[in-house]
Design a protein that fits this description.
By secondary structure, the protein is α/β, with parallel strands linked by helices. The chain contains 12 helices and 9 strands. The chain has 2 domains: about 240 residues, no CATH class; about 120 residues, CBS-domain, CATH 3.10.580.10. The strands form 3 sheets. It has a 4-stranded mixed β-sheet.
Length: about 375
């Protein structure tokens, strides 16, 4: 889902990251406030004041989304769900869960926490706005406060739409899960409803585009396509987890993987291994000793003109918790590690000794067969 991310800060033990796509929404929000909303509501102010109001309003929206996502994360922690952190991206923010909620109650409380937080923020800003009216605060200040009250109310309303994986869709899934006791069925139904609502939103976007609202129409269409993709992906992720959970890495690992020597040149690695066996990663062994791994990532960093001089031992990546698992590791955890690290192959290490290699292809083949049988 995400591209390049930048770590911003840690709060209550949660890491907040910024996806590069957030810059798009930040620029759009600031520009639309400075050039559209604030001049329309409060004409006659200087350009500098409008842009100052817009920057403050955009920062307020940023902080509001952080609070919204933090509320999800805090409730998730309360129920023992591991959280990878919070990422702000082009369509808002997301609290990244490491696994599915343990119960329907946990799902419901975690999902509803975000909209309730947004409604609380909206209420606070509205009360401050009302106080400002009585105190005679200046228009620029009141405009920003009223905007933050309104945008948080809209944020809560939008997230309460029963379109999985929005908060409202998760609330719906929790209710269905609680009624029937079947998480897979509840996810399928809520994901289907989410897809239908996304198509309706897409139609509205197209009509707006045809009617002359070009920016609004395009934006609605993009949100609709994102929601539909997210709904389908969330259901597929659940199927994969259900198929793999309880299975250990030992069941899937290749017990005699192809290894390379640290004394090979990079050109020999490319010609004799990468282009011959078509694997992107190889364990590096010196006799029985595991030294690390080498992949196409490391090869890309070596200028082609020195491939004949550079040795594999000079560019290898040391074994770490990021690129290795134990044979007893749950396959779902290994898949999550692949997703986080971007590796499609992991070293399987037992007490410092290489015992196998785990590949994404083998995990997905097992999943495909299991789904076909069920």
């Amino acid at each position: 889902m995400f591209g390049k991310r930048v770590r911003l800060f840690n709060l209550f033990g949660f890491e907040v990251r910024l996806d590069a796509s957030w810059l798009v929404i930040a620029v759009l929000v600031t520009w639309s406030l400075a050039s559209g909303l604030f001049p329309y509501l409060y004409p006659g102010l200087s350009r500098e004041i409008y842009w100052t109001m817009a920057v403050v309003g955009a920062l307020g929206l940023f902080l509001s989304i952080v609070v919204h996502e933090f509320s999800h994360s805090l409730v998730a922690r309360r129920f023992g769900m591991p959280m990878k952190g919070i990422t702000l991206f082009i369509f808002g923010g997301v609290a990244e869960m490491g696994e599915e909620p343990p119960t329907a109650k946990a799902e419901f409380l975690m999902a509803i926490a975000g909209p309730l937080a947004s409604l609380g923020i909206a209420a606070v800003f509205f009360l401050v706005y009302r106080f400002g009216l009585q105190a005679g605060w200046q228009d620029p200040v009141q405009a920003v406060i009223y905007y933050l009250a309104s945008v948080n109310a809209l944020l809560a309303a939008f997230n309460l739409l029963p379109a999985f994986p929005l908060d409202g869709g998760r609330v719906l899934r929790a209710l269905l899960w609680g009624v029937k006791g079947d998480l897979r069925w509840a996810t399928k139904v809520s994901a289907d409803i989410g897809s239908i609502l996304a198509m309706g939103l897409l139609l509205v976007g197209i009509l707006q585009f045809i009617g002359g609202n070009l920016i609004g129409g395009i934006w609605l269409a993009l949100i609709a396509m994102f929601l539909r993709h997210a709904a389908q992906t969330s259901y597929q992720q659940l199927l994969v987890r259900r198929a793999l959970e309880g299975e250990s890495v030992r069941r899937f690992m290749v017990v005699q993987p192809i290894t390379v020597s640290p004394h090979l040149t990079v050109r020999q690695l490319v010609d004799d291994y990468i282009l011959t066996y078509h694997h992107r990663m190889y364990p590096v062994m010196e006799g029985d000793q595991l030294l690390g791994l080498v992949s196409t990532r490391q090869v890309r960093e070596v200028p082609r003109e020195i491939w004949d001089q550079e040795l594999v031992g000079d560019i290898l990546l040391a074994v770490s918790s990021v690129n290795s698992v134990s044979p007893a590791t749950d396959a779902v955890q290994a898949l999550a590690k692949m997703n986080q690290s971007g590796f499609t192959r992991l070293l399987v290490v037992d007490h410092g000794r290489l015992v196998g290699l785990l590949t994404l292809k083998d995990l997905l083949n097992f999943f495909s067969l299991k789904v076909e049988l069920t």
